[in-house]
Amino acid sequence: MKTTVWLIVAIMCCWLSLSSASTHNDSVLAGLPNNTADVHSSAALVNIPRTRQFVLEDGDRHYQVMIKLPKDYRHNSTHRYPVVYMTDSMYSLQVVSGATRFPMNTNMMQQAILVAIGYQRPSKGSASRIRDYTPSHDASWKLPTGEAKRHVAFISQVVMPFIEKNYRVDTQQNTFVGNSLGGLLGAYILLEQPKLFAYYVLGSPSLWFDNKQLLQQFAQRFQQTSAISAKVFIGIGELEKPPYTHDGHQMVTDARAFFKLLQSHPSAQAGTLQLKFLLIPEADHSMAFPTTAIHGLSWLFKRSI
C-alpha cells in the first residue's frame, strides 16, 4: 500500500515538473522576437543537391533508387561519367555523397554518377537486405535468406539499363560499393558475374554468413574462373574481431583470407585483377565504412596531379 502511494506521489511530481517546464518553454518561445518565429515557420527540408528518387520494379517488388548527378553534368553535355552503384541507399548515399563532394567538385577525383539502391518498399530494411544480399539459404535465420541471385538480376537487368538509358554513362567504369551484407553481395557478384562491374569497393564483407559458405566457394572455384579484368578494394576495421563483433565473428581474419584467395588468381598474377586491402585502425563494424568508401573510391578515381 505504501509503495502504491509513493508511486502515485512520484508520478504526480513528475507531471507537475513537466507541466512547469512546458509552461516555462512556452513563455520563452512567446518572448522570442517575431522574426525568430517567422524563421521557424518557414523552415524547409534539406535535400542532397542534384539528387532524384525513382521507384523501380522487380516483379511484385518495388525498390527506391536514388541518383545523384555530378556537379558539371548539365554543363558538360558530351561527357560520359562512371557510375557508382551502392547498396543500403539511405546510409550509403549520405556517406559517399558527403565524402566525395570536395574531391569531385574540385576535380581532384573523377566526377561520377552515384546510384543508391534501397530496400523493397515498404520494408524498413532488415528483412529486405537480409533476403536480397545473402547468396545462400540459412535455415537458422528467422527472416528469409538466399535471394542474392534474384537481386543481382534486378540490378543488372533493371537498374543498370535504366541508368544507361537515361544518363550519359561510361559503362567501362561501372563500380559496385557494398558494406557488411552489401560487401558479401559484392563478393558473390565477383564470383558469379565478375564482369558485371569493373570496380568493387567491399567494406567489412560478412563472409561469416552461413558458416562461411561463400568463402568456401571461392576456395573451391575462384581459380577456375576465366580471366578477370577488375579492381577490387577491401576495407575492414581493426576491431572487427572478438570481443568487438557479434557472435564472435572473425571478420578481419575472413577478409584477409578472402584477399589472399583473390591474390592467388592468375589474373592477379598477370596484373589485370588489381587488389588493395585496407585495415582501418581503431575502427569497429559500425565505424569502418566511411573510411572504406573514401579510400576505395579515391584509389579508383583520384586524378594524378
Key features?
305 residues, alpha/beta, eight-stranded mixed sheet, 10 helices
What does this structure look like?
Helix 3 packs across helix 10, helix 4 runs parallel beside helix 6 and helix 6 runs parallel beside helix 7. Helices cover 45% and strands 18% of the residues. It has an eight-stranded mixed beta sheet, with helices on both faces. The chain starts with a helix and ends with a helix. A hairpin with a 2-residue loop joins strand 1 and strand 2.
Beta-strand residue fraction:
15-25%
Number of strands: 8
What kind of sheet is the major sheet? 8 strands, mixed
- Any idea what the shape is? globular
The arrangement of helices and strands along the chain is HHEEEHEHHEHEHEHHEH
Question: Could you give a short description of this structure?
Answer:
The chain is of the alpha/beta class and 305 residues long.
Task: Itemize the secondary structure elements and their pairings.
Layout: H1 2-30, H2 34-41, E1 51-58, E2 61-68, E3 83-86, H3 89-105, E4 113-120, H4 126-133, H5 148-166, E5 175-179, H6 181-192, E6 199-203, H7 209-221, E7 230-237, H8 251-263, H9 266-270, E8 273-280, H10 288-301
Parallel strand pairs: 3-4, 3-5, 5-6, 6-7, 7-8
Antiparallel strand pairs: 1-2, 2-4
Helix pairs in contact: 3-10, 4-6, 6-7
